[in-house]
Every structure is written in structure tokens, then in C-alpha cells.
Write a structure and sequence with these properties.
Rossmann fold, elongated, four-stranded parallel β-sheet, alpha/beta
Length: 420
């Protein structure tokens, strides 16, 4: 297939599809992007954008007209509607590259879970369609870690089951690089490529790596699978899909995902590490823009406190940590750390103050030598932190005059030495 062939990209505004679009453009290929909402498209100049919805196959005609190849991402949790979509693609195009799953097992009548059954069903439809096809059976997408972004933006603890589940997360750019080769070159027809990242990491290790990318001491906190199941179902996920995800993670505790060299074999470049991915996506986890001088009077503005938090974490880990539960709620506490300590303090938001003691212990393990609690913490919470710290570092409290918490004398001396 020549580079003059027009390629239709579905899922063009998603993590992988957007990269496929950019790489096709860079290679001089005519690109058409299929989107459901034409009013909210943010794609590079030079992309032809057409409206269409995979859930409504009758809307795909314009998008498929004069197209020679299709990059197909199936965004639904069932294969309902897929036969009509594959038929429409086969009517117009010669080739399809489908983003599938590493865990699809050939030769099985039924896959062990609903997600892989979905991918196996679509693969079978494509095989029977008469299209030239390539299946990209991807391992765990590194972008799955974006599901933790909200927790990370609001604190330093990621609550997940199966923290020791081990995956080989792959960067979306590596999937896109292989996809472009399969869409535009000969030699990939009938291939089932298993794509993975270059290393196996547990979920807990991925959390820590994200923390290193944003200079914050992130930690994984194990929660029971039953708790996660209830939360995910409450968010709208089908119970069968949730059970499939949990079962897969449970298996990966004992049997980690494999690592393949397919990305390098096809593209000539080694697959990117998860650390590279975390660095590329650091802004997704910080979540706030950089701003201003550390000595500004921020008053009660929570956004200003968040901006300072981000700025402090971009520095190396400070030996002085300021733990606060509700930024902006106590201006005395906020200004105490920001105006007088500046960037020498690592600011640590803890939305659930009952976790402050656990956070404090984690900070000590990261090298913190002094901890201060904001005014929102009462005597009981402060006492729990002091007990957990066990005298390993001084602990102080903003609103207690630096005297009602154990270690206050050493704390006060250290503060005066730093701020003099």
C-alpha cells in the first residue's frame, strides 16, 4: 500500500489515535479523522475531519469514501454493532489495523473474560471480512495510569487493589509507531503483533515512578478487591467487566505480563520505558499551571496554594514537609509555610486527614527530616502523627504555638535557623 493511500483513523482524539494521526501526517500520508462531535475537535492542521459514530454504522459512509486503510479502535464494552461496522469498512477499504489485546488466546471458543472475548469476536469478524488485516495485541497501556490522576492531584496515596500485579506498560507512541508501519507498508498482512513496554512493573512501582516524575512521594495503598468492585460498579462500569479486570489483575500477581521486543523489531527503536511515559505525562498528574513568587500573600485562594504545591514539588525533595488537609481553609497555616519557608518546604495535601500518620511515615522514608501539620489538624490527629513518627523526626503544628506537640523545641530551633 502506498503513502498516497488515504487512511481513516477512528478514535482520533484518543491517546493512541491522536498519535497515529500525527505520525501519519509526518510521514506525508493523507489522514482523515473520524469524530463524533465536530464542535470539539483539536487535531493538527492538515487532518481532514469528518463526523461519524461507530455505534451508528449508517453514519460512516462519508468517512470511508475513497479510503484505502483504516485504523480501528473499538470504544465499546460489547461487540454489538461491530458486524455492520466491519462490513462497511470492507466495502470501502482494503486494509484494517485493529487495536486488540495481548491476552486474546488463539484457538479458544470462549476467552476467559469479557474484555478479551470482545476483542476475539472483533478479530474474527475482521478475519472473515476479506480485508487485509493486522492485529496489534497490546499489553497494558501506560495510559491506564491516568485513572489515578485525580487521586494524585489531590494527595500522595493511590488506593487500588492488587498493588503487586505486574504489567509491561506500553507507551501510546510505540503502539502508534507500529500502527503506522502496518497501515502504510507491505509485509504486515495477517500478523498478530504482541506489543509491550520494555520492562515489568507492579502497580505500586508505577505509582512510585509517577511520583518521581513530579517530585512527590507517591505511594500505593492496598484496598480489598471487594471495595474496588463496589466503587467501580457505582461509577457505572458493568459488573462483568469489573470482575474481568479484577480477575486479570489477580492473575498478574502470580504471572506477570510478558515482555516482547516487537516494537523494536518493527520500528527499529526500543520501546519507551514507563519512566519516559510518566515524564511525558507529568502535567496530567500535577494538574495545575505554574505561577508566581513563593512569597506572595495567597490568602484563602485554594488555587494559589495548589500552584505553590506544584512549584515546591518540582524541586528536589525538601527535608521539611508541611502536611495540610484543606488548602485555603486556614490562611495563617498557609502563609506560615509559603511566605516564610518558600520552596524549601515540600507541601503535601492530604484530603483524608485520617491518613496523615501513614503519609508522614512515607515522607520520612523519602528522606524528610522535619514535619509540620497545618492548623486544620486537631490534637487527636496530631497525636496520631507523633505516635506514628516515633521520635524519628521533629513534628510541629502551626496553631498550637509550636509547643503542644512532642518535638516542638527541636522543631522551633530548626525553623528559626532556616528562616533567619
Amino acid at each position: 500500500m502506498t503513502r498516497q493511500t488515504k487512511v481513516l483513523v477512528t478514535g482520533a482524539t484518543g491517546n493512541v489515535g491522536r498519535e497515529v494521526v500525527s505520525r501519519l501526517l509526518a510521514a506525508g500520508v493523507a489522514v482523515r479523522a473520524l469524530v463524533r462531535n465536530l464542535d470539539s475537535v483539536d487535531l493538527p492542521e492538515g487532518v481532514e475531519v469528518v463526523g461519524g459514530d461507530l455505534s451508528k454504522p449508517e453514519t460512516l459512509g462519508t468517512g470511508l469514501d475513497e479510503v484505502g486503510a483504516v485504523f480501528l479502535v473499538w470504544p465499546f464494552l460489547t461487540a454489538e454493532g461491530a458486524p455492520a461496522v466491519v462490513e462497511a469498512i470492507a466495502w470501502h477499504a482494503r486494509r484494517v489495523v485493529y487495536l486488540s489485546s495481548e491476552d486474546v488466546r488463539d484457538g479458544l471458543e470462549r476467552q476467559p473474560d469479557p474484555i478479551n472475548q470482545l476483542h476475539a469476536d472483533i478479530e474474527r469478524l475482521i478475519e472473515d471480512s476479506g480485508l487485509e488485516w493486522t492485529f496489534l495485541r497490546s499489553g497494558g497501556l501506560a495510559t491506564n495510569a491516568l485513572a489515578w490522576a485525580e487521586q494524585i492531584r489531590s494527595g500522595n496515596v493511590v488506593r487500588e487493589p492488587f498493588g503487586s500485579a505486574a504489567r509491561s506498560p506500553i507507551h501510546e507512541r510505540d503502539i502508534a509507531a507500529v500502527a503506522v508501519r502496518a497501515l502504510t507498508e507491505d509485509g504486515h498482512i495477517g500478523a498478530r503483533y504482541v506489543l509491550t513496554g520494555p520492562q515489568v512493573l507492579t502497580q505500586a512501582e508505577q505509582v512510585r515512578t509517577n511520583g518521581e516524575a513530579i517530585n512527590r512521594p507517591l505511594r500505593h495503598k492496598e484496598i480489598p478487591p471487594e471495595t474496588a468492585r463496589a466503587e467501580w460498579i457505582a461509577e457505572g462500569w458493568p459488573a462483568s467487566v469489573v470482575d474481568g479486570i479484577l480477575d486479570a489483575h489477580a492473575r498478574m500477581v502470580a504471572r506477570p505480563e510478558r515482555v516482547t521486543s516487537t516494537v523494536e523489531e518493527i520500528t527499529g527503536s526500543p520501546a519507551r520505558t514507563f519512566r519516559e511515559w510518566a515524564t511525558d505525562h507529568a502535567g496530567d498528574f500535577r494538574g495545575v499551571p505554574d505561577s508566581g513568587d513563593a512569597t506572595t500573600d495567597h490568602g484563602r485562594d485554594p488555587d494559589a496554594i495548589k500552584k505553590q504545591t506544584k512549584k515546591g514539588h518540582e524541586e528536589t525533595m525538601s527535608s521539611w514537609a508541611y502536611i495540610y488537609g484543606q488548602p485555603g481553609a486556614d490562611p495563617v497555616a498557609d502563609r506560615f509555610a509559603i511566605e516564610r519557608a518558600g520552596q524549601r518546604t515540600t507541601l503535601v495535601p492530604v484530603p483524608d486527614e485520617s491518613e496523615a500518620a501513614e503519609v508522614a511515615v512515607g515522607l520520612i522514608e523519602e528522606g524528610v527530616e522535619l514535619i509540620e501539620l497545618c492548623g486544620g489538624f486537631g490534637v487527636t490527629e496530631a497525636a496520631r502523627v507523633v505516635e506514628a513518627v516515633g521520635g524519628r523526626v521533629p513534628v510541629g503544628h502551626v496553631n498550637f504555638g509550636l509547643e503542644s506537640v512532642e518535638g516542638a523545641a527541636a522543631y522551633k530551633a530548626r525553623f528559626e535557623a532556616r528562616s533567619s
